Amino acid sequence: MQQEIFQQCLRDQAKTIEQIKQAAHQLHESVNQRYAVFLPYGYHLDMVVNGVRQYGHVVLAEPSDVIAVIFAAYYHDSIEDARVTYNDVLKEARQYMDEQHAVMAVEIVYALTNDKGRNRAERAGEKYYRGIRETPYAPLVKLADRLANLEYSCQHGDALNARMKEVYRNEMPHFLSAIDAHSDDLRFSLPQAMLDRIHKLLAE
């Protein structure tokens, strides 16, 4: 999609996007979830959505898909962290879009929901990554999630963030391979500018 068309879609849907943002922020506030210990979790959600806003035009196939992908970015951690179900999120999505796009949005959220596991590797195993590769736009939203976490870790030099940067550095080759669908379908692709940004951060 041309960037101008994508940006116009965002402007045209600004009121709806703001409503989705506020609802997602409130959901995570309702379970006292925090980001980096002291920040409201909405801080992270906004960073993920900003990644989609910046790079999404490369991947978005249709203007009608924009709201679904923005919704998915705001709700990507809702099933995993905010004590809601697939059907809860679907009911919420239906308030903002038609049935086809509501299902599209929630399928992305579901694909990004970690599996049950005792550690990081078990929670994000092959089944998890296969779900991302097989779900339209899930690779984009997952990459935006990782970029947001990496940017935060690089911006803050305390011990925890320095450790997490090394975790992301060590995981990155496998992570990028695992979410790359190698598909000719634009909706499964990874924006090169986003990948370049990640590699630049890791090199610093």
Gist of the model:
This protein has 204 residues and is an all-alpha fold. The chain has helices at residues 3-12, 14-30, 42-55, 66-75, 78-81, 86-93, 99-111, 120-123, 126-133, 138-155, 159-179, 192-203; strands spanning 34-35, 39-40. The chain is 68% helix and 2% strand.
What tags apply to this protein structure?
mainly alpha; 12 helices; 204 residues
Describe the structure.
This protein has helices at about 5-10, 15-30, 40-55, 65-75, 80, 85-95, 100-110, 120-125, 125-135, 140-155, 160-180, 190-204, and strands at about 35, 40. It is mainly alpha-helical. Helices cover about 70% and strands about 0% of the residues. Strand 1 (about 35) and strand 2 form a beta hairpin. It is globular.
Give the SSE map:
Elements: H1 3-12, H2 14-30, E1 34-35, E2 39-40, H3 42-55, H4 66-75, H5 78-81, H6 86-93, H7 99-111, H8 120-123, H9 126-133, H10 138-155, H11 159-179, H12 192-203
Antiparallel strand pairs: 1-2
Helix pairs in contact: 2-4, 3-4, 3-10, 4-7, 6-7, 10-11, 10-12
